Structure formats: structure tokens, C-alpha cells
């Protein structure tokens, strides 16, 4: 993993826009929260200001460099770490850009999330969006060949995390298998790949784009072409 490349992304205008939009949907207080696949702990640290947070991350290098002033508990590991938690241990689970990098373990992970979430618990999933990636490749990068390849079924690749096993909303519906109801779907960075980078360096670009994206974020016409999609799912009682 290129750690510096990732930190550059986080601190870039489009990285700051990503977190500003996602965090706007996660305004929790006095909740027990699990951040699974917590990365550098950016969201875990943010949420720990008003909540009790436990974070799980499998990458040791990321854990060593995580943003943690002691306000949340950091665990090194993956799905196996979930086994230690009792049923209904959490009010909210964060799972952002994680399922794309898993294989057959997705179903087991969703089952564990369901078990350790309390009644009416919230699962927050951020996922890559194939159509958004095609728009980004074709317009922002002007990489027509790769855009065509993705449309024809080729998998994109992350510089930091490897092959991206994208999944569509209907595939997620099959994966959750009635365990969760989708409460909200938001587009994240709908317009990001349609602008020149020079504009993103303007002082007020993030704030202006944030306000614009908030207007269209829950409109299917727009979240259908957003680079990321953010879903809030509510645990279904059985």
C-alpha cells in the first residue's frame, strides 16, 4: 500500500468532500458504534467525539498510522474479531468501501453484522458505483478504453487496495437477504469526475460542491451516476 498516496487523497479537496458528505448522514450521539474496516481511523475518530466507538482494521500499517488520540478502541483483525461480541452489542455499524475487497466472506460478514446489531440498529455501507466509475474514466480521466472495458465487465483496480469487486444495488439486496431494510440511498461525489482539477483548488470549492450535492444526493437519477453510493440500512426484526 502507498500510504502517502492515500493520505494525499484524504487531504485533497475530493477526499474532504467525501468525508463531509458521509459524515452529514451519520449524525449520531450516545451510540455504541463499530467501524469495520476502519482504515486510518478517520471516521472512527470523528464519531468518537459523541459516541463510544470500536474500530476493526486488518491492515497493520494502517492501524499503526491511524488517527487515534485514545478516544476509541482499535482492534487489529477482520471478521474473526466479530465473534467475541455478544448479540446486540452495537447500535450502529460502519462498513465503508469494504465489501468490494472481500470474496466469499461477504455473506458471513452480513450475518455477523445482523447478530451484533441491536433491535432497529443501523448499518452504514459506502460502496463503489460502476456507472459513476465509467463516467469518471470517460470524462475526468478521458480514458475511453478503460471506460469501455469496465462497461464490458472488466474490474477496476485501486492503487492502494487492489482489484475492486464492485456490486450493484440489486446484488446487495440479495446479500442482505431480508435481514435489513434500506432506509436511505445517497450519491457521493456525483459531479466530482465532471470537473477539471484546477477548479477543485479554489478555497470554497468543497463547501459549494457540498451544498450542491446535498440537493441531489437522494435522487435516483443522480445517485445512479455518483462515484460512490452511501446506504443506510435498518435491522429487520425476525
Provide structural commentary.
The protein has 238 residues and is an alpha/beta fold. The chain is 38% helix and 23% strand. The chain has a 7-stranded mixed beta sheet. It has a two-stranded antiparallel ribbon with strand order 6-7. α6 packs antiparallel against α7. The protein is globular, with a radius of gyration of 17 Å. It starts with a helix and ends with a strand. The model has no long low-confidence stretch (mean pLDDT 91).
Describe the SSE topology:
Layout lengths: L2 H9 L1 H12 L7 E5 L5 H6 L4 E6 L2 H5 L8 E4 L13 E7 L9 H11 E12 L1 H11 L3 H8 L5 E2 L3 E2 L5 H8 L3 E9 L8 H4 L4 H12 L3 H4 L4 E8 L3
Parallel strand pairs: 1-2, 1-4, 2-3, 4-5
Antiparallel strand pairs: 5-9, 6-7, 8-9
Helix pairs in contact: 2-10, 6-7
Amino acid at each position: 500500500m502507498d500510504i502517502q498516496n492515500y493520505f494525499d487523497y484524504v487531504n485533497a479537496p475530493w477526499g474532504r468532500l467525501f468525508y463531509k458528505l458521509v459524515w452529514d448522514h451519520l449524525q449520531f450521539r450516545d451510540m455504541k458504534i463499530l467501524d469495520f474496516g476502519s482504515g486510518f481511523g478517520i471516521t472512527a475518530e470523528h464519531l468518537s467525539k459523541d459516541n463510544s466507538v470500536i474500530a476493526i482494521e486488518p491492515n497493520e500499517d494502517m492501524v499503526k498510522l491511524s488517527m487515534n488520540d485514545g478516544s476509541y478502541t482499535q482492534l487489529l483483525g477482520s471478521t474473526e474479531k466479530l465473534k467475541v461480541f455478544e448479540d446486540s452489542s452495537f447500535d450502529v455499524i460502519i462498513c465503508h468501501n469494504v465489501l468490494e475487497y472481500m470474496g466469499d466472506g461477504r455473506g458471513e460478514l452480513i450475518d455477523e453484522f445482523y447478530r451484533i446489531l441491536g433491535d432497529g440498529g443501523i448499518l452504514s455501507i459506502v460502496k463503489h458505483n460502476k456507472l459513476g466509475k465509467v463516467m469518471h474514466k470517460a470524462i475526468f480521466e478521458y480514458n475511453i478504453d478503460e471506460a469501455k472495458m469496465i462497461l464490458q465487465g472488466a474490474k477496476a483496480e485501486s492503487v492502494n487496495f487492489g482489484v475492486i469487486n464492485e456490486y450493484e444495488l440489486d446484488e446487495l439486496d440479495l446479500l442482505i437477504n431480508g435481514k435489513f431494510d434500506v432506509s436511505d440511498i445517497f450519491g457521493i461525489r456525483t459531479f466530482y469526475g465532471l470537473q477539471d482539477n484546477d477548479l477543485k483548488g479554489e478555497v470554497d470549492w468543497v463547501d459549494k460542491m457540498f451544498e450542491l450535492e446535498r440537493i441531489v444526493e437522494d435522487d435516483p437519477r443522480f445517485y445512479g451516476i455518483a462515484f460512490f453510493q452511501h446506504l443506510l440500512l435498518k435491522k429487520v426484526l425476525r
